[in-house]
Amino acid sequence: QVQFVESGGGLVQAGGSLRLSCAASGNTAGITSVGWFRQAPGKQRELVASISRSGGITMNESSAKGRFTISRDNAKNTVYLQMNTLNPEDTAVYYCNAFPTPASGPWGQGTQVTVSS
């Protein structure tokens, strides 16, 4: 099994920045792409961005393009999400998981991002 642990969230004012980290452990050899997802209260979980082991990137055009950057350190089995120019609509719990097919087992606890206006 693969486990993902998210960290780096917090409370930030509108216009601020945060850098999220996603650490993968366990049987990661079969994981080629990792995605960052978010779920706001009352809404469905959505993909924010994904990155393949070779560095291929997919961004959610409506929510992330131009403001968020995804990167990875394969040696550390860690994927990062740099979020700039945050706004209150970015408030959500952010998760990471294998993409496009999530790893078996429960999702991690995620990391809460709260943006105040």
Could you tell me the radius of gyration in angstroms?
A: 13 Å
The count of β-strands is 10
Shape type: globular
Determine the N-to-C terminus distance: 40 Å
Element order: H for helix, E for strand: EEEEEEEEEE
Major beta sheet, strand line-up: 2-10-9-4-5-6
Number of helices: 0
Largest sheet data = 6 strands, mixed
| Percent in strands | over 45%
| Helix proportion range | under 10%
Arithmetic mean of pLDDT: 94
Derived from helix and strand composition plus strand pairing, the structural class reads mainly beta
Low-confidence stretches: none
Architecture blueprint of SSEs:
Blueprint lengths: L1 E6 L2 E4 L4 E9 L6 E7 L6 E7 L4 E3 L8 E6 L4 E6 L8 E7 L12 E6 L1
Explain this structure to me?
The protein is 0% helix and 52% strand. The radius of gyration is 13 Å and the shape is globular. It has no helices and ten strands. Strand 5 (46-52) and strand 6 (57-59) form a beta hairpin. The mean pLDDT is 94. It has a six-stranded mixed beta sheet with strand order 2-10-9-4-5-6, with no helix packed on it. The protein has a four-stranded antiparallel beta sheet with strand order 1-3-8-7, with no helix packed on it. The protein is mostly beta strands and 117 residues long.
